[in-house]
Write the structure tokens for this entry.
Amino acid sequence: MKLADTGLTAQEIKDKASKYMIETYERFDFLAETAKDQYIYDEKGEKYLDFYAGIAVNSAGNCNEKVVEAVVEQAKTLMHTFNYPYTIPQAVLAEKICTTIGMDKIFFQNSGTEANEAMIKMARKYGIEKYGPNRYHIVTAKMGFHGRTFGAMSATGQPGNGCQIGFGPMTYGFSYAPYNDLQAFKDACTENTIAIMVEPVQGEGGVHPATQEFLQGLREFCDEKGMLLLLDEVQTGWCRTGKVMSYMNYGVKPDIVSMAKALGGGMPIGAICATEEVAKAFTAGSHGTTFGGNPVSCAAALAEIDELLGRNLADNAAKMGAYFMEKLKTLPHVKEVRGQGLLVGVEFDDTINAVDVKHECLHRHLLLTAIGAHVIRMVPPLIIEEKDCDEAYEIIRASVEALS
Ligand SMILES: Cc1ncc(COP(=O)(O)O)c(C=O)c1O
């Protein structure tokens, strides 16, 4: 839908949203009307360089032609059936994902938080059935982020902070340990612990990649104790970090991995993949979803994966990420540049507020996000080139200088 079709002004659209919508977002003062590749356009047709990609979603570019075609074709063919009949896009996608990332089984959901709910439920059921009724405890990382439904929110190790505030007691059965502290994770596990659940790179927590020693150490410890390693790859999955899945950067394989965001190329889809043995915990009736595995989202995901793999966008993410991060280190007021592939964070010193940088960049037509007080995060489409990194760098530099 375009503004001209409505007879309304951009301000009237914003006013309607403010009047009728329950606002939980800190909005950009910007109306996104159309998008293509690494750009988003406002209602005046003005171009913005997109370095957030709907938060790590539009990895093969905004409105990727192949994805759009797949959506249109599938919408005309079969839009929704629930999961009683077999459907073609679902079965083909299931094989494509499992064989690409080396996992045995998949369960489709609609979003990241739902995928994590499924991952937590599967781990608990596996533990209880295999070891007894108390074996459901899960250790997650402080400053992690796993989503906003009750299980995923409870797994999010930020007690008293952000998304948990005001919602009363969290779901029982989680403990939190500091990220990248292997000994602390070992100490937090008890005889009732069935799993350790972490992001390979903490995204919302400020862009902190796991160390090799940490992730490998968790894998070895889980094996030793008969526990499961659960990886939340909702933000890192599907080529963002320079490999198809971030765990491939470490040579560490999870027992269950969750994914969403980039998988659908802009259409809502999430999933978990598990080993054959662990997947057996889900049997008829033990889990389900109306929309998960919807044919249109599955067709979009197939097209997105073809684009990501066919155009070697994981390699491009690794190359552009390295190039961009080197440049970002030369920004004024930089404390640290962190990241993996094109999941990039810049932490400024105490004099520079990240939200102010975000707004200054928006004025200069660059879209990025702020995390906490001093970190900006960039997760652009993986199709970007050096010239896009150069342009983004110049805008950030001008923005920081304006704030200095
Ligand atoms: C690592 C991680 N897990 C889970 C989620 C939740 O995903 P969704 O917003 O699709 O529910 C996010 C979202 O940012 C995420 O980054």
